[in-house]
Amino acid sequence: MERQKRVAAIHDISCVGRCSLTVALPILSAAGVDTGVLPTAVLSTHTGGFEGFTYRDLTADIEPITKHWQSLNLKFDALYSGFLGSFEQIDLVADLFKKFREEDTIVMVDPVMADNGVLYSVYSPEMAKGMAKLCSMADIMVPNLTEAAFMLEEDYVGDDYTQEYIGKTLRKLSDMGAKKVVLTGISFDPTKLGAACYDRETDTISYAFNDRVPGYFHGTGDVFGSTLLSGLLNGFSLAEATQIAVDYTLKSIQLTVETNQECRYGVCFERAIPYLIQRLGLLK
């Protein structure tokens, strides 16, 4: 039997509201991946749609955890970072990448910091620049259009873009250092939504789309990113893994709508896990 792969997921924990580690851990685990976690912060809820949430910064814990992992001689097939709790964490996570990266390790950075043209409330422009530095160390970066604009220090274009613009943006993001870029939230048709992929080694761009469901659904970026990495660790190509991630995210949204769930609590990805396992070819 093939050796089980291991990933370190570096995200916050939102105690209520399905996102970050409460999404990444179950999705990667369902995909057959041994998933270690490094929490960057603990929040009572996620920051979208809730007021008065608590926020505990775990910056001081990152270096001791990293050192203990080193003492255990741990090896990781992937290092996957998302929401970071402070500016200081950028250098700490960069150092973790250097310590645990090996020749075949996938380093994937989702620069979770902004959406709809606006930085999240706990982020600053300084932190956006720092996130660009972290993305430069990645093999794969997975920003949305807002995050791409902040990292490239360009104006946010909203929905006013062309396929040519997306192609140029993908290449400029890759020029920062990542060999592969997946740009999320892309649409050229009001009835479709998906992502654009760029592979610098082959200089190819591909797209993955599926039906758009009206509304704003919290946590879908984390569902998408965790599924993308699950596909890659199960041997799918970047284009294939991206399509699986788009389809599974849609399935999770559809189940949320069908069961009349309140959107701010995240999408019903749990009920769609059998679909994901099937798409990954894990049912024997």
TrEMBL record:
<keyword id="KW-0418">Kinase</keyword>
<dbReference type="GO" id="GO:0005524">
    <property type="term" value="F:ATP binding"/>
</dbReference>
<keyword id="KW-0547">Nucleotide-binding</keyword>
<dbReference type="InterPro" id="IPR004625">
    <property type="entry name" value="PyrdxlKinase"/>
</dbReference>
<keyword id="KW-0808">Transferase</keyword>
<dbReference type="Pfam" id="PF08543">
    <property type="entry name" value="Phos_pyr_kin"/>
</dbReference>
<dbReference type="GO" id="GO:0005829">
    <property type="term" value="C:cytosol"/>
</dbReference>
<dbReference type="GO" id="GO:0008478">
    <property type="term" value="F:pyridoxal kinase activity"/>
</dbReference>
<keyword id="KW-0067">ATP-binding</keyword>
<feature type="domain" description="Pyridoxamine kinase/Phosphomethylpyrimidine kinase">
    <location>
        <begin position="73"/>
        <end position="262"/>
    </location>
</feature>
<dbReference type="InterPro" id="IPR013749">
    <property type="entry name" value="PM/HMP-P_kinase-1"/>
</dbReference>
<dbReference type="GO" id="GO:0009443">
    <property type="term" value="P:pyridoxal 5'-phosphate salvage"/>
</dbReference>
<dbReference type="InterPro" id="IPR029056">
    <property type="entry name" value="Ribokinase-like"/>
</dbReference>
<protein>
    <recommendedName>
        <fullName>pyridoxal kinase</fullName>
        <ecNumber>2.7.1.35</ecNumber>
    </recommendedName>
</protein>
